[in-house]
Amino acid sequence: MTVPVENGHAGHHTAHNNGGQNIEKLDALIVGAGFAGIYLLHQLRKRGFKVKIVEVGSGLGGVWHWNRYPGARADTQYPLYAYSMPEVYKGWTWKTDYANSADLRSYFEHVDAQLDVKKDTLFHTKVESATFDEATNTWFVVCDTGKTFQTSFFIPAIGFSAKRYIPDWEGLDTFKGMIHHSSFWPKEGVDVAGKRVAVLGSGSTGVQITQEWASEIGDDGDLKMFQRTPNLCCPMKERNLTEEEQTKDKEDYDAVFRARLSTFGGFRFQPRPEKMLEASPEERQEMFEELWNMGGFRFLMNNYSDMNRNLEANQHAYDFWRSKTLPRINDPKTAELLAPQKPPHPFGAKRLALEVNFYEQFNRPNVHVVDTKTYPIARFVPKGIVTADGTLHELDVVAVATGFDGITGGLNDISIRGCGGRYLADKWKAGVLTYLGMTSAGFPNLFFTFGPQAPTAFSNGPTCVEIQGDWITRTLEHMRASKVTRIDAVPESEHEWKQLVQKFSVTNLRHFTASWYNGANIPGKVQEPLNFAGGIPYYIETLKDVTDRGYKGFRLE
Fold first, then answer.
1. Which residues form a coiled coil (predicted)?
2. Is 94 inside a domain boundary?
């Protein structure tokens, strides 16, 4: 059994290791061929910049190239989990209103056919180090293939889930069965018919795998979902789409994509101005039923404005959720594990999953919940997993759905050295410091997307990365026109940004709940707000204000 290992500072290479051989000069080098990287490549190329992408995987799609586990699909509803570019959407037709991973990989092939992405993408290439050269105001970037780039701008567009997290379980390497992390899933899939299988984790990925595997194991198999915290899932209400309705819908796409910029999370809806505690019980029930029946994130993100800010209001939402969930689970003990009487945390404070028939799976006699909050995993043994109560769970296949070192892990995994040779990971050891969630002082000409202290996990991905991509593109155009070769955030501006991130965070119940939103899932990681919770409109206005005021908070040279 082999568990892939992520590298840390990757040997601390610099550009001078190869004596100047095989160095390619660029205006911009992008890391990652997902939504953000492809968008930036397209926008910068259109404006005459010499730019390339390096991608560790073998294909386009970013997280969707890697996420091939059973049941993997987007949780943003059509048509917003896609680019807003007419040259892309006009020729594309979705099968369902929540795209699965295979459809998303096909979508990225369509994107390539329209935008010719692959011609400027180096696959099977991992960036090991990026070092800023203060004499030339350029970045020297060394890849594991031996390739070195000298680039004016270095843009890691790796998203928030680039670094997998696998707990340091005792005896992991002794297990004789098959084990895969959800984002290292074999392309050929895993046959679990008649097998004894385990899903470790109950986040969105764990829910999706459990939902699929419960039927795939058949009557002779056995499934155990190892759960520390129940996922307060909402119904997806997925439906098939016709080509005819999409052709008609496309007439309004431009307006729909513009409208998302005015909503808090970049979706088609946002919290309503009304307060739950000011509504009558009858009004509240009517609102809840309406949102529940619409499905998706409506119940979470289109609800009363005080639901995620006030514990009393939040309890009403939890009680309604539980009243809808309990009738779907036959066994009272299982029901208490999956939908406990006392909320495990405020509703919506942790990322909830969208499900189709998740709860019904536990009515099967061979599908079980293992309560790892009471009895954690003690160790792996050749035959399976031993929990703290001494129980041996004999297993053939294990799916590790333990998530990621989210938001910052991927950036810290690259050996990024700025002014004075300081590593970005060292700078952030005591806590993240960014300006606008895209730059960090002391690391000139470095821009990152869908990362720390940006809307990121509190937003629709394509919405966020297009906003950031447009701002980065305009910034590079401004620098070229002004004959400026260096841009760096000043330390004061990033401290002010951190205070703003904190100010918005404390208004939401998420702030007081340990989760990957604040780094609590990684042992030893500083717990702090990792996402900007001020909303998309405020973020857009702030970016505009910075540029309108001559790049306030930056030093340009």
1. none
2. yes
